[in-house]
Amino acid sequence: MESPARSSVIIVGAGISGLSAAKVLVENGVEDIIILEASERVGGRIRKQEFGGVSVELGAGWVAGVGGTKINPVWDLAKQANLRTCFSDYSNARYNIYDPSGKIFPSGIAADSYQKAVESAMQKLKNEEEKNDLDGTKNTDQPCSPETPIELAIDFILHDFEMAEVEPISTYVDFGEKEFLVADERGYEHLLYKMAEKFLFTSDGKISDSRLKLNKVVRELQHSRNGVLVTTEDDCTYQANYLILSASIGVLQSDLISFKPPLPRWKLEAINELDVIVYTKIFLKFPYKFWPAGAEKEFFMYAHERRGYYTFWQHMENAYPGSNILVVTLTNGESKRVEAQSDQETLKEAMDVLRKMFGPNIPDASDILVPRWWNNRFQRGSYSNYPIYVNQQLVDNIKAPVGRIFFTGEHTSEKFNGYVHGGYLSGIDTGNALLDEIKESQRKNLIQPFLVDPLLALTESLSLSTQADAVSPLHKCDIPTQHFLTSTKLGFSEPIL
Ligand SMILES: Cc1cc2nc3c(=O)[nH]c(=O)nc-3n(C[C@H](O)[C@H](O)[C@H](O)COP(=O)(O)OP(=O)(O)OC[C@H]3O[C@@H](n4cnc5c(N)ncnc54)[C@H](O)[C@@H]3O)c2cc1C
């Protein structure tokens, strides 16, 4: 019976974390990897699309955390790739809040509402901390709930934008407080191609390496103490000594991938404890500009009695002058609601809100773009959010491997979850953790001491000089269901499952 060829490592997902893990492995001599990506492209939640004559970012848009004493590694990559960016100044957003009659709230009222929202957020954090501290004295103060439209609008930007965590956010503490919007026709994803160029075969700005396999939706992971066997939706199978899984927390919470044997309870509990945030940027193209321009007017808000209803707006004149594009951001319940309706209905709702702010005579948008991150079965949401009060066990369990399956992705980054740099750094950490595991396993087993490079010996990697050599023979599709790990090098001859 024919078995699929065996690699050292299979990486599931070609977003930034999967690619940075691959980079660490390849740069350390583990070259016979396979990257299985469900969609037709690399990048995952970093994704550009042509819209209204420019390139807009449907997923990550900003390099967040710049200007501090430590350099954000993604900012470093952006510099190396010569990515065009522009500074975003959010500090004025609270002074550009429109009421339904089109008037901007006086700055004093805005400042008071802001203060109230911050105090309420701090109170919530304190209460959570006390709830989790069994010996602590209980505090009976209740945080004030936002009530008026302006309070709701400010509460929305504090919680759904600036302060999803009210404690200091590591990104800003570690890397700096500035945020830069990517405004480059090649897209944020250009960073990934630049990174991939260093360890995968590329030509004409595309990754042409046969170790990267697109349109491969992983549906089943069989794992044992000897290795892993992966089955994809098109019935191909792949086997490896180890696997790195970079699918998002939303995907892990869904039934897209089944594990045999099932994941242990502690892992499932940790996966289910994280929240999935849905964050949707809706793009609208207009024949001409009718909103106030200027850097300090880049962000503006609409105070509606329904929290998060077309609240947060941005014009794209700073990024792309003359593009006449507005972006409105919805989150969570509003995102899901809008994903479920037609774009025409969404356009009508957005236009009604804009007419409240800017009057009845503004032109209709000529085009609309509504990304659907929640309904994308390879994402199931935009990014992870840890509970306000996180216990260390949860953090450890989220990233802990299960046998030969290693977990990576922004959701496994204790300090930077939810960000591109969280994805990047988690991939590097997971790649290094797997290298350590490989070395440790080799030390214990003392396998093939006669080979020059012990790491390569363990992982079955050979010194590969050409792409054709890198994975040969190709992994098998449509093979029967019983599989054997046949590697004689590693001494495996038993069925793994
Ligand atoms: C709308 C939005 C706005 C954001 N804004 C910002 C921002 O401004 N700044 C910032 O720093 N971060 C932002 N983020 C977060 C950032 O994009 C992510 O944290 C980061 O890109 C996650 O990278 P990742 O590698 O962990 O996951 P992903 O990019 O999701 O990569 C995982 C890959 O796995 C693939 N996959 C899933 N299931 C399977 C399967 N069964 N088989 C094979 N492949 C599979 C997916 O297709 C995907 O390509 C935003 C995200 C979104 C969605």
From TrEMBL:
UniProt-recorded name of the protein: Uncharacterized protein
GO-annotated biological processes: polyamine catabolic process
Protein family (similarity comment): Belongs to the flavin monoamine oxidase family.
Xref: Pfam families: Amino_oxidase
Biased composition (Basic and acidic residues): 128-138
Binding annotation for FAD: 17, 37-38, 218
InterPro entries: Amino_oxidase, FAD/NAD-bd_sf, Flavin_amine_oxidase, Flavin_monoamine_oxidase
Cofactor section: FAD
Record GO terms (molecular function): flavin adenine dinucleotide binding; polyamine oxidase activity
Record region (Disordered): 128-147
Pathway: Amine and polyamine degradation; spermine degradation
Keywords noted in UniProt: FAD, Flavoprotein, Oxidoreductase
